[in-house]
Each structure stands twice: as C-alpha cells, then as structure tokens.
Amino acid sequence: MDIKIGNSIKLLFFCVSFFVTLDAADRLELRVVTRTNDTAVTTMALGVPYTLELKVEGMHDLHNCTIAGLENFHSEFFGASQISWMANSSIVHSYVIRADTVGDFTLGPATLVTKTGTVLSSNVLSLKVEQQQQSDVIVELLLNQKSVVVGQKATGKLCIHTCVNSQLINLQTPSMDQELGTFAQLPDHVQTTRTIEGKNYNSYEIPITVLFKKPGRFSLPKVGALCRVQNQKKQHSFPFGFSMYGAQDIWFYSAQPVVLEVEALPPLSSTNHFLGIGLFDSVALMCKQKSATQGEGIVVLLDIIGREGVDDLQPPPLDLPDGLKYYESKSTFEKLSNGSYKKSCEYIIQATRDHTFEVNPQRYSYFDTASRTYKHLTTNSFKLEITGGKKRFQEHDLPKQLDLHNDLINDEKIASIKTDGPWFYTPERALSTRWFLLCVGLIVCAMVLGYIRKYRSGLTSDYWMQKRKRDAFNATRKTVAQLKKQNNYSQLYDTFNQLFKDRCQLLPAEVTADIIEDRLKKAGFVRESVEQWNRFFLQLAELAYCKQGAFSRVPEDLFKRASMWINQLEEKL
Fold first, then answer.
1. Do residues 499 and 569 touch, judged by C-beta distance below 8 A?
2. In the prediction, which pLDDT does 521 show?
3. How do residues 96-134 score in pLDDT, each as one tens digit?
C-alpha cells in the first residue's frame, strides 16, 4: 500500500512538472483588460483608457518587441512586472491605450526576435470601439466658435468631471509653437458638484482662449487630466515564489479632439486705420481743454466700447493737423454694467505753434466677427486754441532797484548800534567729533539699507527664473548626491523632471517625454543618444511609479548613469 501511494505521489509530481514545462515554452500573449480588474475585453469605449498586457514566458527584453496596429491607438508605456512559478518566470509589459476614433481595429501580432534568433509571434486581437457611455473621469473641451479668422481669439472652457472615488492630480494643457498661435488658460475657474446619469462628480470649469496666427484647419493639441482612480486590484502572494502586483492607479483622460477652421483675414480696402478684430459699438474722442499755451501738455482720451476683442486692443494712432504732436500715455480697461467692455486710451498732445486747430473726426475700421465683414467707426471732432507761451522777463519789466545804502543813512528812525545797551560775549555752540561721526554713520547706513531694499524689490520673477536656470545642474547634482546617500532611487524621475523644468523654462504640464526628446534633438543629441536617454528615463519612471517590490533588483550603476547624464545635458542644453 505504501509503495502504491509513493508511486502515485511521484506520478503526480511528474505530471505537474510536465505541464509546467509545457506552459513555460517561450510564447507571446496579447490581451486588453479594464483598469479595475483582469477581465479581458474586445469592446472599448471611446476615449477611455485600457490596459494592454504583453506577456512573454522566459526572461526576454520586451522593449525590442513590435506590436502591429498599435499606431491606431494613443499608447503610453505603463510599467513592467515579473511573475515567478517554481523555476520558471515570465515578464509582463503594460501599456495604457486609448481609442480616439470609433470603428473596428486589429491589434497584433506582437513580434519579438530572441537573442538566439528565434522569432516569437503573439495572438491577434479584434477590437471594437464604441461611443463612451460613462466614465469615472470625463474631460470635455468646449469652444464657443468653430470657425475664426487669423488673430481672432476662440474662447471656451475645459470641463473636468471626476467621480468621488477619483482625484485630479494634474491638468495637462497643450504647448503650442509661438509662430503658430497660443493656448491660454485663464485663472477664473469654477468648481462645483454635478450628478451625471445618477453618478456624483466633482466638476472643474476652466476658461481658455485659443488664437492662431496662420490660416488653415487645425486640430487642437491634446488636452486632458492626470487622475488617481480607485484600484480594485490587490497584491497577492502565493507559495513557490509566485507573486502578482496590482496595476498602477494613475490614469490620463483626454478630451475629444476639436477641429478649428482658421480663415485668412480679408484685405482691407479702406484707408482708415485698422482698429482690431471683434465686436465694437462706438469710439469717442474727448478733450476737456478748449485752449492751452504753446508746449503745454493736453490730455486727450479715446474711449472704445465693445463686446469682444476690446481687451486685446493696442492704442490706435491719431490723425492730427500740422503743428500738433502726440504721445501715448496709459490705457485702462473695465467691464460696464450692461456687459460690454470699455478701453480708455490716454494721449498727451502738444502744440508747436500758436494757432486755432481743428482736430478732424478719427476714422477706424475693424473686422466684425459676427458679419464676417469690415465695419467702420468715426469719432467726434473738436477745436483747440493755442496761444503764445510765457513771456521772458525783460529789463524794463523789473522794478526800480532801491538804493538801500542811502535810504538807511537818511532814515532818522534807525537808531545807532552803539547806543543800545551793553555788549556780552556768547560762545558759539559746536557739535563734538564723536556725535558728528555717529550722525554721518547713521546716514550712510540708512542709505545703504535703502539701496539694498530697492535693489531686492526690483528683482522680478524673471530674475529668479533665470537664476534657477543657471543653477539647475548644480542643484540637480546636490539632489542626486543626497538621494544616493539615502538610497532613494524613486525620486530620480522627479529630479530630472525638475531639471528640465528649470533649465528649459517649462511649465509643469509641459515636462513630458515627447517634449524632452524634442529638446534633446534640438540641442544636437544624435539618435543613438536620444534612444539611450529614453531607455534611462523610462527606467526612472518605472522605479518612481511602480509599486514597491515590482523590481527585484535596482541597477547598481543607476546613480552613476544619472551623474553621467547630468554632465552630458550640461554640455549641450
């Protein structure tokens, strides 16, 4: 009986080992799962991120793997994990993919050439992308205009609705080439709570403006939000060294692409001065003075009232008759009670000769964004009488000088100085040397302190930004040295992000892998160096964002390579 039991145990162990060996054969596997569980899906919602898992049995470098059809999706590398079972192991690379177009797509096969020259191919996935029903995070880009002209601002708002179990980490706004246009995020945002299809959301509405300097048909750059969502996957531990780690809980949600038609501004046939682009109601020229002297400064106000484009106006020129000249002074902007806007442009007028001048009406043309045509506005006219300047003093205008000596002698009322009582000696009071030096020292100290305070108050934000730019590499070296002492490799990713932010004068939302790669190419880095940087930067991102323990061993030369990259970046950036 014991022999039969022993033989049964051996047979069972042999079968388990046999099936494990079969399962350990090198093969690639592709699958798309939702972000909260391991359920494989074949239908994706438009604009919602999913996880694409690429799994290979054995220890292979999946960074050299190519996936057919991945170009049809927005994809970002998410992290790597290792699964061990007895003596066998497998590597899983995760990607965040998002579909921005409705339709049927094919993803795969994934192809990998091993070190021995063997070609491994994965399965092929058939995916169907449908309209999004509901999500934990909804991002909407809403524009009030879909068609504008060159130089016209398109206004709108960026709406972000996050579910109660989600947290908004960072808002990513696009960075546009200054030669193409500008994308501006206005500070007056509104935060409310909303209920969408029975689900509670925290809503953020951020006003934005978009302006293009060239005509054409443009798709607005990627706008979205980085959010932390509740993750239902837990970390599990099993015997025989098997471990599985939950996926990351940080996701990027983007708005649907918005296409904007930008038309060229029609030619202006009128000889009037061009005022601007927008909706303007009236212009008025006001001068409170009716007369002045030659060379005297006269204040003239030009009030421009409108409903759109008023804030961006530059002071328009004035047409004045010969003998009058003007200088631009200051401008003020205000919102009126009826919802319109007013901009007051102040000018200083001076006359170079005596004359009665008549300032003709000022005529301006503007492009009306409602009718898509040029319209014209005219101001009132006014007269200005200029008289001669102040006369110089002439000798005959001076009063006759008095003969003070003769008058004093002949004035009998003045008593003799010698007949007015006794004389006494009074010593003159003098300041001691000690007090004199003390007073001088106090005055000098007050002047020095005032100069230092004036100098420090004159330092603008640009100065401190330039200082951080100059000290970026030294600050990064100190930070890396401290992290090395603490063996804190997870902070290296943020340290290099801060380096590019300070050195390249970038906003936090602009520090992305694509922008960094573009900066390196412009700085003269060759393709091989850029690829090496991407691998290094990707490794730092994995160490920073993957959960603790996802990497069995951190490279020993990581800090050494970090110092090497700091030196290379300092030479060219």
1. yes
2. 86
3. 888 878 889 999 898 887 777 788 888 999 999 887 666
- d(Cα 294, Cα 97) in Å, to the nearest integer? 74
Are 255 and 291 found together in one domain?
Answer: no
Between helix 558-572 and helix 472-486 the angle, nearest 10°, is: 180
Residues 382 and 278 in one domain: yes
109 upstream amide cis, omega within 30 of 0: yes
Domain termination residue (choose one: 387, 411, 442)? 387
Mean pLDDT of 530-551: 73
Residues 6+ positions from 82 with CB-CB distance below 8 Å: 89, 90, 91, 92, 550, 552
Residue 143 near residue 156 (C-beta atoms within 8 A) = yes
State the DSSP code for 24.
T
Stretch 314-333: mean pLDDT, rounded? 91
- Measured CA to CA, the distance from residue 222 to residue 176 in angstroms comes to 11
CATH code, domain with 292:
2.60.40
Residue 45 vs residue 482, higher pLDDT: 482
| 158 and 110 fall within a common domain | no
- The residue written with tokens 């919802």 in the block is 339
Angle CA(365)–CA(367)–CA(371) in degrees, nearest 5?
125
231 pLDDT higher than 60: no
Per-residue pLDDT averaged across 21-34, rounded? 69
Say yes or no: 55 and 113 in one domain.
Answer: yes
Of 302, 344, 304, the C-alpha closest to 326 is 302
Torsion angles phi and psi, residue 272, rounded to 5? -65, 160
Report the pLDDT value the prediction gives residue 247, as an integer from 0 to 100. 42
pLDDT digits (tens, 9 = 90+) for 166-179: 777 777 776 677 78
pLDDT for 316: 93
Give the separation between CA 255 and CA 234, rounded to whole angstroms: 30
Burial 359-370 (b: 16+ CB within 10 A, else e): beebbbbbbebe
SS3 308: strand
Domain that holds residue 76: 22-130
**52 shares its domain with 103:** yes
> How many residues are recorded in the chain?
573
Q: How far apart are the C-alpha atoms of 3 and 5, rounded to whole Å?
A: 5
The DSSP symbol for 240 reads T
